Every structure is written in structure tokens, then in C-alpha cells.
Amino acid sequence: KFLTPGRIVIILQGRYAGHKAVVVKVHEKGTNEKNFPHAVVAGVDKYPLKVTKAMGKRKVSKRSKVKPFVKIVNLVHLLPTRYEFESIKLKHIVSAKSLDPEARRFTRRVVQKKFEERYRAGKQAWFFTPLKF
Hints:
This protein is an alpha+beta fold. The protein has helices spanning about 55-65, 100-120, and strands at about 5-10, 20-25, 40-45, 65-75, 80-85. A five-stranded antiparallel sheet has the order 4-3-2-1-5, with helices on one face.
């Protein structure tokens, strides 16, 4: 209900605990393979580093890289935020088929391009900063 596609969430458990992610698709009743409520999320594994005016173009481009992850997460392990990722179409990129081990690498690359475009445009700046705790 409140976990709609595009909602930014924080992952609470597992390898990516404390990382921000975007909900791509929600299965509140579960599926045949996964019989629990879950969501497909695309998130930031490695956040971009700080950039200053004194840095050259090459250093800025290296420090502006975003390493994404694509994962299925139990809804219990997600903390919804008030923020939403607007006007990005991850639903067409990330699907159940794209989570297969062979296709996941390609999916991650495409998500990385989308995230980096978003970061360079200066939109959703909060999403691309690590949580302070």
C-alpha cells in the first residue's frame, strides 16, 4: 500500500543493511517461488565520493561512480522513507528474469547508468549519500 514502485527505502537486514534502495516491484502476497511478501529493489552498494572544485575531470568522473545492486528483499526488512524516485523507469529494466545470474550483470550495468545520470543531474541528492549513524 505505501510501498509503491519508486519509493525509496532503507534495507534493515542482510549484506546491504543500512543502504538505500528504490522499490521496483512489490509482491504483497508472495509468489509461487517465494511464498512471503517481498519486493524487487535496486539500490546503491557503493556511494559516490565527495567532489571539490580543485579536482580535474578525470578524478571527478572516477569519484562520481555509483555501484548498484539488484535484489529481492522481504518486506519485513524494508524501512520506507518519505522520498520517492520520480521519473525513472526501472520497471522495464529490472524484472524477475533479469535477476537470473547471467542477466543480473547486464541489469546492474543498466541500473548503474540510470543512477549515474541521476547523480550527475543533481537530482535526488539525498539518495546518493550514505546514512550517517
